[in-house]
């Protein structure tokens, strides 16, 4: 078989009902996640909103709130315009001690495929390094995503960054 006809069974738990993606489709998804991490790690803030569709959701929410259905989130944006406002804040108005981020994102697990929409989860860890300090674990959790295939490529329709700890640093400036 060629790479374009090979399919990957992306769920070991339910092999008979698991969504199937071609190798090329799965590679595109992995590349999408890698590019997302690269943009955040290099501080290309203007590129960050371009990973999303116009009417999108981006939340950073504690695991306990997510599991109990509580809506309270540390960050809660409902459109690409709100993401752009956050970028403006990072670049122009917020005052904070700058730091570097390093995202480590696990392999995406495709939970479901509905036409052009993929339901995907991926574990993440974000390390933070301040100048002249040791790196520390800044945030860990999982992305719960709805990713849409568009003419421009894959775009996030909804991203929940569900972080594991109830404690976070006193200021969450950069996107997770």
TrEMBL record:
Recorded GO MF terms: oxidoreductase activity
Keywords from the named record: Oxidoreductase
UniProt feature coiled coil, ranges: none
InterPro entries: NTF2-like_dom_sf (IPR032710), Rng_hydr_dOase-bsu (IPR000391)
Record-linked Pfam families: Ring_hydroxyl_B
Record-stated family: Belongs to the bacterial ring-hydroxylating dioxygenase beta subunit family.
Protein name per its UniProtKB record: Salicylate hydroxylase
Native organism: Trinickia fusca
């Amino acid at each position: 078989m060629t790479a374009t006809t090979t399919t990957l069974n992306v769920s070991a738990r339910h092999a008979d009902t698991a969504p199937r993606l071609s190798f090329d489709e799965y590679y595109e998804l992995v590349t999408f996640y890698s590019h997302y991490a690269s943009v955040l790690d290099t501080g290309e803030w203007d590129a960050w909103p371009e990973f999303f569709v116009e009417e999108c959701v981006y939340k950073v929410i504690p695991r306990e709130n997510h599991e109990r259905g509580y809506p309270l989130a540390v960050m809660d944006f409902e459109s690409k315009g709100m993401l752009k406002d956050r970028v403006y804040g990072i670049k122009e108005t917020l005052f904070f001690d700058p730091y570097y981020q390093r995202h480590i994102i696990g392999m995406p697990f495709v939970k479901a495929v509905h036409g052009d929409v993929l339901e995907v989860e991926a574990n993440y860890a974000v390390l933070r390094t301040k100048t002249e300090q040791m790196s520390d674990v800044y945030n860990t959790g999982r992305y719960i995503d709805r990713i849409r295939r568009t003419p421009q490529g894959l775009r996030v329709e909804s991203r929940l960054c569900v972080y594991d700890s109830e404690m976070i640093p006193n200021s969450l400036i950069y996107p997770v």
